[in-house]
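User: Fold this; tokens only.

Assistant: Input:
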Amino acid sequence: MSDTFNAIQAIQNEEAVDVQLRTISKDSLSEGNVVVDVAFSTINFKDGLALEGNKGKVMRKFPMIPGIDFSGTVAESDDSNFSPGDEVILTGWGLGEFHTGGLSQVARVQGDWLVKKPKELSLLDSMAIGTAGFTAMLCLLTLEKHGVLPSSGPVLVTGSSGGVGSISVSLLSNIGYEVEALTRKPEMHAYLQELGASAVISSDQLEESGKIMASEKWAGVIDTVGGDILGRIIPSVKYWGCIASCGNTAGIKFSSNVLPFILRGISLSGVESAYCPIQMRTHAWDRLSKDLPQNSLQQITQKVHMGEVFEVASKILAGNIRGRTVVDVNKTAT
């Protein structure tokens, strides 16, 4: 391992946050008992905010390295559960916010945060899935916990062309669910149908805001957007249906009423992935390695190098990226 390596590092100046590709040493990394040679990281919406000068103040301390997830190989370990050479995955745990993150050739983290990579997945596959795919699986597990099975009826996925949405569509359809994909982008219809959506709908096909109850349409929902969209979906969820809520790109507030909950027995269940217990993480990654079709990852994923992350950040914040973006942290140019 070299004494220095490349990382995207953010430094707080008096007037702004300066985020650049820099050469740094391990002294710039947060404390931890496992050192990992990172192979791949990703660009999620939160990473986009960080790379665009810390919009939304997602980075809470400085200097900081963005990147809320990574995959790589253990280089040094003081944790008895991990040895040099182990291939590992890390998502969440404040990475890129409170703890230096994955957009770096080297990471130092707590062993308790790491998951050993399933043998069915490569390091690249692991980040093609990444935080988004992990979240999608947690949403699926939530639907299953509430009894929403393929035989229950259609499942709606909102924000379906994004990372969580794309993997949700592919995952659900692969294991037998009828999937309807909601998107505001007509140009994404063919892409979503290729991933397995039986129907692609737009928001103008939802109930109007303020509707109290509506005809039953969906046994389950994976909602990645929140806001008014969530409020317009609730009246159409079927008896004993469940909404797995995991995002807020359409806003943090929505309007609803109690009748769908007390007359149809539906559930609105929040899904949180950053501090998910290790047992659930291991189970979710095991399911992903078996239930997510490998060929769909190629359709969903684009790979970029470290020199391209700022351009990708601008696109993801503008809503102009589909699927997943994986970063090869060991390349700075093509």
